[in-house]
Give the backbone structure.
Amino acid sequence: MPRLQLIALRSPRAGPFDLSLEPGECLAVTGPSGAGKSLMLRMIADLDPHDGEALLDGRPRAAMPAPDWRRRVVYGASESGWWLDQVGAHFKTPPVEAATALGLPQDIFARPVASCSTGERQRLALLRVLALDAPVLLLDEPTGALDPEAVLRAEDLLRQRLAAGTSILMVTHDPAQANRVGTACAVLEGGRLQVATLTR
Amino acid sequence: MTTVSLSPLDLGAAGLLLAVEAGLSLVCNLGLHRLVLIAVTRMVIQLLLIGYVLRLIFSLASPALLLLAIGLMTLVAAREVAARSERQLRRQGNLMVGLASVTSATVTTTLLALTTAIRPHPWWSPQYAIPLVGIVLGSVLNAASLSLDHVLETVTRDRVAIETQLALGVGYRQATGPLLRAALRRGMLPIVNQMSAAGLITLPGIMTGQILAGLDPVQAVKYQILLMLLLAGSSVFASGLTAMLALRRLTDGRQRLRLDRLILATAPTVATAIASMRADWRRRLQR
């Protein structure tokens, strides 16, 4: 039984999408801007009205309260949102170890969000998503604002999760990243997913 | 109680200062006299008209007429609440939210006052009910419109923060909780200001009017306190309910943030609002 299964997920602006994702699998989705990549992720996370069904370990999404679904199929948007002043207040327990692995300074959780750079915020947002220990992650350009070294550190973290059985659906603009992290690859064009091959 | 009765001559004397100013404007070519003249004329005609209408309603003492008058006042207040914000909820949402919160806050407060503190005979006596509804409506209108405007403006601004929380599995109610509290506080500001300034910075209008009309100051103060309490109660009620109802219209069964239900548009007039409500009901009846 696949971890995540999409059955004709569609809105007037994108889809239909049919796919299944196994535990430990990472599907890297590329495609031109405006093709509907973020719309697809938002649909899977049930953040926009749409048709179709999604299943987690065979359990239909409609049978689950929306917050329960979103806690298990977590969407990390490309633009991170912050609703409290302090970084640490956005975490139940600050993941200090993972933060160090991503090259973030030790004191970052005590700082105000406003003092963090774009790259720091992006890494913090990734940590916030990972902290939920969800079986499925929907990541929208998770390393878009990072320097090359930080990108590799973030990818290491993602590969650890994959090895532990997490399934990831990742939107990226970098074909090299798709090759480094993805176990499968697809191109989204004209609102449809086309399976592509990894160039390994 | 001895009331001081005013003759037209007395009122004319009060307008003397304005007349001098209008004359100055004419002489110095300020172009203000027309503006002031129109405003004064409108004010006098509107107030005289309402005076005679009230006299008629009071003398007829008909519950149906009273209900009609209160209904009209409420409808106009609800439209004002709906019109204050630049953003409009789809399907006349602003008007519906305004109508629901204005009506329930006003009816509850007025009924409470009429059956406990004031107790006229009969309890619905228009002479008490109408002025009470009027003053409560004024403060409810303030509270509800500020609260609605705050929700509709802030929810657009805070969209990313709210949706990030939803995406992390936080419920809609929790994610929008701070917004609800801020809107409630915003709606209460005018009455809180009014209460803290009362007696120190300003002498409230009702009290001033009663003292001028010859009532003992302490009696007038007691009346003012009663009114302030009623206005504060209705303000909290109205701004809280308005924010709750507006936020409820911005979500759905799957706890999404539905900003597609919000449009930048000009406010509806009473006529178009009624027309669209009728069309809506006809559609529902046909189903």
In short: Chain A touches chain B through 25 residues (CB under 8 Å). The two ends of chain A are 27 Å apart (CA to CA). Helices of chain A lie at 37-44, 66-72, 96-101, 118-130, 148-163, 175-181. Chain A has a mean pLDDT of 90.
